[in-house]
Amino acid sequence: AQKAFYGAAPIDLPGVRINTLQPGEKATLTKPEHPNANFEAFVNAALRKVASAIGVTYEQLTMDWSQVNYSSARAALLEIWRGFTAKKGGFASQFMAPIYRAWLEEVFDKGLIELPAGAVPFELNPAAWCHADWIGPGRGWIDPLREAQAASERLAGNLTTLQQEAAEQGRDWKMDAQQRARERAFYERLGLDPDPGKPEARSQASAAPPAEPGDEAEEEVNGRTSARRHPAGIPRIARRKTA
């Protein structure tokens, strides 16, 4: 009877198949009930797996910091920073270092650098001349006050150096020191207090004139200290004098 009824009362729509109901039949639609109460937990679990696979935290992937406190954020940052440091080192050694060596070799070939007397030529020890510390981007601070105090404690206990602390924030400690010297000299020329928050620093300040920017002597090269450095930390380049 059902087949005969459907055959006698067809409904034809182009490209559509429709079932014709018999008298008394009812079409019941499904109720997916999405999103349900477990949808957010499911998505968060999936995102945590994705973050773990790519080496970042869930918070960095989703930018959701609602469930984070200082301790958990600090622990997560320290954990992933090791991976970032390894990637930075690989990028520096495999990409930046070869470019730097090629550039420095050309500089030496053109005679643009005057070597100190007795210095080893570039071609005899290129690895020593090309040695460089690639700083890269800074790690950043979660709580600047706490982490600055911790850095001061590490420096006071000889557990770290200014170079290491500055490099972790993507800065060159020598350039920072030179900038501070320039700012101090500028304040003193204007008759201003260079240390308004540190009265004890004024009483202990040296009367020696500040060094000119960029006149810092390079570390010993083969026992000599006559080489000069550019304020950016690279060897000062000067054209070789010709007869």
UniProtKB/TrEMBL annotation:
It holds the Pfam family Phage_portal_2. Residues 226-243 have a biased composition (Basic residues). One of its GO terms (biological process) is virion assembly. InterPro entries: Phage_lambda_portal. It comes from the Bacteria. GO terms for molecular function: structural molecule activity. Residues 189-201 have a biased composition (Basic and acidic residues). Residues 189-243 are annotated as: Disordered. This is Phage portal protein. It comes from Sinorhizobium medicae.
